[in-house]
Write a structure and sequence with these properties.
Helix content is 41%, strand content 16%. The chain is built from 17 helices and 18 strands. Helix 14 (474-492) packs across helix 15 (496-507). The radius of gyration is 36 Å and the shape is elongated. It starts with 10 loop residues before the first strand and ends with a helix. InterPro entries: SAM-dependent_MTases_sf. It comes from Micromonospora ureilytica.
């Protein structure tokens, strides 16, 4: 329970407050993450805003340009947030005055934590009706709905129905008819409350701290988008690093994307709905802001949130800077690091196409060497075109791995051009780094591929280089691994010791290891199977070697026995009697020759 003192006059207690309960999230994103950025975009300057339910305090910091009222059920949370809002109402939706309306109502924590257990219970539909009534004509409601069949539940090792902690005192599933269970049901209930659904974003990788918000309609339509592929993979790979899961969430999310079901598997949805200006015509259009296609938070905190917007010629990059951002466009110590982020580069169009990594994985799984050769030839040729006269590559192209390059026909392009190398790198090192990263993911991820199982990561990198038309050696691959360690250390803010440790780990990556990062039971089992296969091979090799040594030892013993038998025969003894005088005579002749040479040598020197 917090010990903060609430500012006088800001907290209203109409009754029903929970005095010994806190809902504020423990895990928080820098500057509130994509959710706070979306809320700031939806709220116009000077608007009256109702923030219903517990939210990250950073979200309120993003709404300083508006008049904010918080609706909470927890009194400790009200004390903690009172200095960030103009007014805090504690006790649930029943405590809102009936005559108050707002330009924007934000319930991005869902409706369940809005309702207090100490007051009259309204239920999910009752809370929605009360919040919808608080939206003025032409206003908007931003509402979160958790997905009972979301990716977070599919990969969790503990089933949702077995939770016993305090945070799970209210558990909902698909059988709970009081809650909508999908987007269609949510839209129906919003219309029943007098609101018109306008947009929906799929939130990944979890419900409480999403690092990516993706337009659900675009996810359904643009199944092959390289942008969505990279964002989903990055968000899910980074969102489960501290927990062991049943299966790889990044792989599952990407598969769902290409199957057109990424929006259906989202852990939660954020839906924007409007109250029509004409109550008699629910189809009356309401002017929407330039709604983003995607919002994501990547890299170190302080940069801000990246967004993708519609442009005249397609999607374009944008940046929502952090409220307290002090990081300039170029990192202050960029000269001491291998890479940095240039946010000024996020102003152009987003290149279309499919992600190169996905295309290579697909071809490897199908053992399609022709497609692999064509893709790798194109990738290597594109990198060669980026090199200067000295054969070195600088800028964003120097960091263009297979997970940040999109392919559209014969065209290759960097997806996110903001990551840049501080110093130019040799073209063969850039190629080797990209191929090593792909080879490491292919082998440690347990993917089927057309090459020998005895290849290590460096060996497969050399093979991939051959397919790309380049003769890479292991020394170049080692240099590429060192470059990868330095770049990863710069992107994650590691110190010198951490960089050295990371380089050692990368050099030691073996095909029998699980993937770097979060572990899933599937991946751990596949790694165990690869280790068992390797141990079986080594055991067979050891048995063959022992059998060979045993057979050689037996042959040697037979030879020794034969020698002993022959050395005891009469012919052997006669032969030795005949040979021994000859050997003695030969030794005597050699000794006489040495003595004669020693005597004659001084005389020859005197004569000279």
């Amino acid at each position: 329970m917090t010990t903060e003192t609430a500012p006088a006059g800001r907290i209203t207690l109409p009754g029903g407050e929970m005095l010994a309960w806190s809902d504020l999230p423990q895990e928080r994103l820098a500057n509130g993450g994509p959710l706070a950025a979306l809320a700031a975009r939806l709220v116009p300057p000077g608007a009256r805003v109702l923030v219903a339910g517990p939210h990250d305090p950073a979200l309120l910091d993003q709404l300083t340009h508006a008049e904010v009222t918080c609706l909470l059920r927890s009194h400790p949370d009200a004390v903690a947030l009172a200095h960030r809002a103009a007014r805090v109402v504690v006790g649930g939706p029943s405590g809102l005055p009936d005559d108050e309306t707002y330009d924007v109502v934000i319930a991005a924590a869902g409706l369940d934590p809005v309702e207090s257990v100490e007051g009259a219970r309204l239920g999910w539909d009752g809370v929605l009706a009360r919040l919808a009534a608080a939206v003025r004509p032409g206003g908007a409601l931003l509402l979160r709905l958790d997905n009972p069949l979301g990716l977070h539940r599919l990969v969790d090792t503990t089933p949702w129905y077995a939770l016993r902690d305090d945070s799970a005192w209210m558990i909902g599933g698909v059988l709970d008819r009081a809650h909508p269970a999908n987007r269609d049901q949510l839209r129906e209930r919003l219309r029943a409350a007098g609101l018109r659904p306008a947009a929906c974003w799929a939130a990944y990788p979890d419900v409480n701290t999403p690092t990516a918000l993706l337009d659900a309609d675009h996810l359904d339509r643009d199944a092959g988008s390289g942008l969505f592929d990279a964002v989903l993979h990055g968000a899910c790979a980074g969102g489960f690093t501290s927990a062991t899961v049943l299966q790889d969430p990044a792989r599952l999310a990407v598969d769902a994307l290409h199957a057109g079901r990424a929006a259906d598997l989202a852990p939660s949805w954020l839906t924007l709905a409007h109250r029509p200006t004409d109550p008699t015509d629910p189809t009356t259009p309401t002017a929407d802001p330039d709604l983003p296609v995607a919002l994501m938070q990547t890299g170190r905190p302080g940069i801000g949130v990246l967004e993708v917007l519609h442009g005249p010629s397609g999607w374009r990059w944008g940046l929502i800077p952090a409220v307290d951002a002090t990081t300039p466009a170029v990192a202050p110590f960029a000269s001491r690091e291998a890479a940095y982020r240039d946010v000024d580069a996020l102003s152009g169009p987003v290149p279309s196409g499919r992600l190169l990594r996905t295309l290579l994985l697909d071809a490897a799984l199908r053992r399609d060497l022709a497609t692999l050769r064509a893709l790798l030839h194109g990738y290597a040729g594109w990198l060669a075109d980026q090199a200067d006269t000295d054969g070195r590559i600088a800028g964003a192209a120097a960091l263009a791995g297979t997970d940040n390059v999109v392919v559209d026909g014969e065209r290759y392009a960097v997806l996110d051009p903001s990551w840049r190398a501080t110093a130019a790198l040799p073209a063969d090192v850039v190629l080797a780094r990209g191929l090593w990263r792909f080879a490491a993911g292919l082998l440690t991820g347990g993917y089927a591929h057309p090459w020998s199982s005895t290849l290590d990561v460096a060996g497969l990198t050399v093979v991939l280089g051959g397919l790309a038309g380049h003769d890479l050696d292991r020394a170049t691959v080692d240099e590429a691994v060192e470059a990868e360690a330095a770049i990863a250390a710069a992107l994650h803010g590691l110190d010198a010791g951490g960089t050295v440790d990371l380089a050692a780990e990368l050099h030691a990556v073996a095909p029998t290891d699980p993937p770097v990062g979060g572990h899933s039971y599937q991946q751990l089992r596949e790694a165990w199977l690869r280790q068992r296969e390797e141990l079986t091979r080594l055991a067979a090799l050891t048995a063959w070697t022992e059998e060979l040594l045993t057979s050689r030892e037996r042959a040697l013993r037979r030879a020794e026995t034969t020698i002993h038998l022959l050395s005891g025969s009469l012919s052997y003894r006669v032969g030795r009697l005949a040979i021994t005088p000859a050997r003695l005579a030969k030794r005597g002749a050699r000794a006489a020759k040495r003595r004669a040479t020693a005597v004659l040598a001084p005389k020859q020197e005197e004569q000279q």
